[in-house]
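Convert to structure. Protein one:
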Amino acid sequence: MLLGDMLARRPARELFIAIMREAMAVADAMGVRVEPGGGGKLDFYRFVRGDGWLDRLRRHAMIRLIGFKYRRLKSSTLQSLERGKPTEIDFLNGYIVAMGAHHGVPTPVTAALVRMVKEIEAGTRAIGYANLLEAAQADR
């Protein structure tokens, strides 16, 4: 699935938001200052702040814009999975899970994502959109 198709779907955006919140909580616990991304345009602290309807609308709109800008791209993890190659999940999301555990920060959504990718790598889970729906429910 291309990034634009994926981020056009609300459950995928909810998953993206949950993972970003977990990652930022881990960074805070580690004392790491996360620099803005996207050429300095994406302030991750502002992105995860707030739970009001306007905050949620802002996050979803921002993710939709990212999805539109990169609509024809496919994530490197998905490319690796489709080729039957090992992914970089341990070095990206796996690191967040490990550091979260070390610092006492829960990362249920990110841990579910890592587990699912490992299952796909092992051939015990199929690649599919349903995985995103399942991962998004991990913190509930």
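Protein two, convert as well:
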Amino acid sequence: MREYPPTTSLNIFLVLPKAELHRHLEGSLRIETMLEIANEHGLTVPASIVHLSDMVQIGENEPYTFSNFLEKFKTLRLFYRSPEVITRVTREAVEDAARDNVRYMELRFTPVALSRAERFPLHDVMDWVCKSATETAEKFGIDVKLIASVNRHESTELAEQVAWIASNYQDKGIVGLDIAGNEAEFSGKPFAPIFREAKESGLKITVHAGEWGGAENVREAIEVLGADRIGHGVRVMEDENVVALAKERGTVFEVCVTSNHQSGVTPTLKAHPLSKMIEAGLKTTINTDDPSISRISLSSEFQMANEKLGLSMKTLKEQTINALQAAFVSEEDRERLVKEFKRGLE
């Protein structure tokens, strides 16, 4: 049952300590920062925030399709023009999360995307992100871990390079490997050996699946790619056998409600299956995915889940604890985080 009326202040959700497992660095850029970068580096983009936002954010009158959603990243990839830019956008992503009272976050980034505009070496890109995230996290008192991400539509050779560097950067904050991109047209199976080796090296595995592809992709993520967690995964509900598999394996779902609606996975926010996933006994968490593209924060996602999906405050707090229990950290750190958050959630 809803605990608060639709007019509830966002502050009620802002004061809650929150944890996030699924946020993309490349979808977290501030509009103002993009304009400054464009001016500094001579990029041809609209000169106003209003017109630039049309290119990099989802508007109310746009088609809510996965192709339109992915189109935003084509523009965003123009901005990674220097080490200073990559350092800055990482710093601001962590700072924005901290100001939203996110106290634990796993920030995923795609080294190939960040390197492409200026052909930076992948290990340099990963150095810049790791250093900036670590320094900013310490400054703002937020726990931040990093997940390196690869794309299904790109080569396994590139993915292998990213995975190899990531496995050697575990002492710099990288804790996991992710695969994202167009799952409707590209299978994850060719990447299975890479993910198997990454897991053997100590990295945890999260896989985008069951978003633009059906429940069979969730099965593939679990059985073939060895996923510890599933990014999105909402179409798991299309197959009760895959639901049973996920429950048996204890697989955790990183659910992103607004993103799923804007990318055409669900026709409306109210039609989102998060409530059904919870009722089915699946382990779920609430996340932003790309807060800048979707014009949201984690606090506003909690508010929306309360008002549109009817999730109670108790359930929302359980989602936060679920995230901590599924975090890619040591058992010692997990126990510490759960204990700290439970005090803040009382």
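The chain has one domain: 11-345. The chain is about 50% helix and 15% strand.
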